[in-house]
UniProtKB/TrEMBL annotation:
InterPro entries: Flavoprotein-like_sf, FMN_Rdtase-like_dom, NAD(P)H-dep_reductase. It comes from Pantoea coffeiphila. GO terms for cellular component: cytosol. This is NADPH-dependent FMN reductase-like domain-containing protein. GO terms for molecular function: FMN binding; oxidoreductase activity. Keywords: Flavoprotein, FMN. Its cofactor is FMN. PANTHER family: CHROMATE REDUCTASE, NAD(P)H-DEPENDENT FMN REDUCTASE LOT6.
Length: 184
């Protein structure tokens, strides 16, 4: 059967460069891999244990179920102030409290995209730190840090225009697929 991967996006804005990369992944995927979006984290309330005590928000439950059903997760996110955007961190905090902990053991790949030179590298290591506590199965390499995104992404067409970036993305999806197959 095909592997099913889902994308978790750290930007909320319509014209997001990260969204363009996330949306390009289905066509860049190796054969036997299907990729779909988890949907926006914009509807998640700020994490609050009092809200949790009354019942997890519907959006959190739905995303948790979609992750549980997937063979792998690809987080695609900008770097905000050298770290993880608040909306994404908030989503991770909610998902971490779900009883079945859907990210535990889940094969996961990280991609960051930035107009800046180093492509959001600093956010990647903050994100990895949180994912250690969630026990996600994060691949180490190849790392995807798309810097100077304005020259590698065609924002008007909404495509990843740089050929070498496209190859790197496919290589990472290959690595995630290999891990997901090993994980069974
Ligand atoms: C940024 N940006 C940014 N870029 C970067 O490379 N390192 C950083 O630390 C930051 N910090 C930062 C903080 C805040 C609050 C904003 C709004 C932006 C710039 C960021 O990479 C740029 O806006 C991207 O285009 C955001 O990603 P999307 O929305 O295009 O996917």
């Amino acid at each position: 059967r095909p592997l099913k991967f889902v994308t978790l996006l750290g930007s909320l804005r319509k014209a997001s460069l990260n969204a363009i990369v996330a949306n390009s992944l289905p066509e860049l995927a190796p054969s036997g891999v299907e990729i779909s979006s988890l949907g926006s984290v914009a509807d998640f309330p700020h994490y609050d244990a009092d809200i949790q005590a009354e019942g997890f928000p519907e959006a959190v439950l739905a995303m948790g179920a979609a992750i549980a059903a997937a063979d792998g997760v690809i987080v695609v996110t900008p770097e905000y102030n050298y770290s993880v955007p608040g909306a994404l961190k908030n989503a991770i905090d909610w998902l971490s409290r779900l009883p079945d902990s859907p990210l535990s053991g889940k094969p996961l790949a990280i991609q960051t995209v930035s107009p800046g030179a180093i492509g959001g590298a600093r956010a990647q290591y903050h994100l990895r730190q949180s994912l250690v506590f969630l026990n996600a199965n994060v691949i180490n390499k190849p790392e995807i840090m798309i810097g100077q995104a304005g020259s590698r992404i065609d924002a008007e067409k909404g495509t990843v225009s740089d050929e070498s970036t496209r190859h790197h993305l496919t290589a990472q999806l290959d690595a995630l697929a290999a891990l997901a197959r090993r994980a069974g």
